[in-house]
Amino acid sequence: MIEYSKSRKQILLMGKDWKWWVRTGFYVSFHPWLLFPRIIYNIRRSISDLKAVYGYYEYPHRIIFIAGLAMSATTWMKNLLARVPGYYTRPTPMPEHVMYTHGICDSAFSRIPKHGYSLFKTHLAPTHENIECIFRNGVEKVVVTYRDLRDVAVSRYHRLLDFPKLSKAFDYVDYRTMPKEKALDHSIEVIANDNIAWIRGWFEIARLYPGRVHFVRFEEMKKDTERVFRDVLCFYGIELADETIAAIVEAAKGKGDVKKNLRKAPLLPWGLSSNFRSGKVGNWREELSDAHIQKCKDRLGAVLIELGYEKDLNW
User: Fold this and answer.
1) pTM as predicted
2) How many CB atoms lie within 10 A of CB 118?
3) Dist. CA 206–CA 170, nearest whole Å
4) Taking CA 156 as the corner, what is the angle to CA 76 and CA 201, rounded to the nearest 5 degrees?
5) CATH number, residue 72
6) What is the sign, positive or negative, of the torsion defined by CA atoms of 251, 219, 99, 126?
7) Which residue, 33, 76, 148, 299, shows the most beta carbons closer than 10 Å to its own?
8) To 10 degrees, the CA torsion angle through 297, 312, 207, 123?
């Protein structure tokens, strides 16, 4: 059994360490042009907010709020919606331990302009405290993305293999030092412990607040991105020209590899940064061993049937 190196009770210190700043500094010095999109984005945001004051946009909702399961196209959905004219991401100042545990508090909404249109991308835990917080701060509707948990476990393994968490995190585990079999076994266990409750929690929120939650399956986004995007726009009452929608879908496609994308991400505007890796559907069939698949049946089988990914455990 793998034990975490830190207690869950301790305060999480998840700020960037000096090594990160050095690496980022060197990267900026050799790629200064990557800062230009951020500057342009901020200028356009200011102009858009000014237009909103004079009623240039007539969207019915001031806030688009995404609460996605990690590794389930949350960033892809964010990159689509960030290209809707008038909507922009904002700084969301919060205590680090709140952010790290997928919570939220009132300070996250402190940078929202009164008349502008804002976009939030989160992995928000569906607790009643969090729901009450977003509702009292003007969030009226939420888009929730999710994915086959077997593929989530595989994606999580590859992400942490390339980008381990900081060693001071309470859930720090270094997959680089572990055999693949053991690391994937651990990843499945984490997904079972954390993500099943997350998904079921959001479906319960949707039951309690009819019409306020819209679910998006990663697999459907891969199959027909434009249709899924149109459904989300309709959910928020946003009307765009067909050519605008087509251009947004094309611009938001995942490109490059995860290492380059995550290296660029701190320099780019939050609304346009990417963490694209490969986004394969059903990749678990190639990566998981028979023992892993049996563990998935034992730990994830029930929820996979609930979500319609399987009819039974014969897979």
Assistant:
1) 0.86
2) 23
3) 31
4) 75
5) 3.40.50.300
6) positive
7) 76
8) 30
